[in-house]
Amino acid sequence: MSRLWINGTLIAKNEARVSPFDHGFLYGEGVWESLRAFNGQLFHAEDHIKNLFSSAESLGIEVPHSLAELIVAIETTLKVNERVEGYIRVIVTRGAGTIGPDPRKITPQVIIIAEEYSPFPVELYDCGLHAVVFPTAIDSQTPLFQSRILGQPHIPVAKQYALQNGCLEALLMNQSGELIGTTEGFLFLVKDGAVVVAARQRPDATGYRIAGMAGDRGLVVAEYAIRLPDLFLAEEVFQAGAACGVIGIVQVDGKPIAAGTEGPVTRTIREDYRRLTRG
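Above: the chain sequence. Below: its structure as tokens.
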């Protein structure tokens, strides 16, 4: 039975409790960040935790620990669960208060989970994903979209939409018709040999690092708005993130991307990421 780190105490998973008066539960007042450990080492932990602090600041929540303290707490959680590899989620909620929205005199709480999570079967990494575009537009202009807040029901609803349509992934679209990511990661395409990052996506430390890896390969990396027709003019489409790693998207809304198979740039970046994280 795995254990969770909750406000400095390690608690068995089946004994962990959150107050029904926690404003994270009542109002979605909370933030989260995910990262991974490989071979006993955290992958770009500082960048991920800085994102957590930025998200908390957007809600006016003061994280009750320093960046260094949170990294130690993550390492402690991994160790007690005897994990050298795993998916980590750090959650900060406003804390337990009254049933009303008044945030005063509430102490934020911190929860750290170290589990294993892989959103896609391993055999799909060689052949790529089929995806759909989630038809409900998302307001990407609001500052809350740029933060990993707890109240984001469009993510599981988009995932449900994908599953209902025989796919494992959904692409997200804003009110201007621009594609702004997926339910599991950062969206990229390859056009004329250059790696293009879809603009207006939520900041993702792992996504940025993988874009940097493409640059290290000598590939041109650019960022601009991507719409659905751009996918079908691209040579390759892929996504990347802490949960999913690097995986190609080879079909969208029933139409193939290029040849409908993982492309050479995606494969190269995926293999570079695997070597970097697993040796």
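The chain has two domains: 3-115, 122-278.
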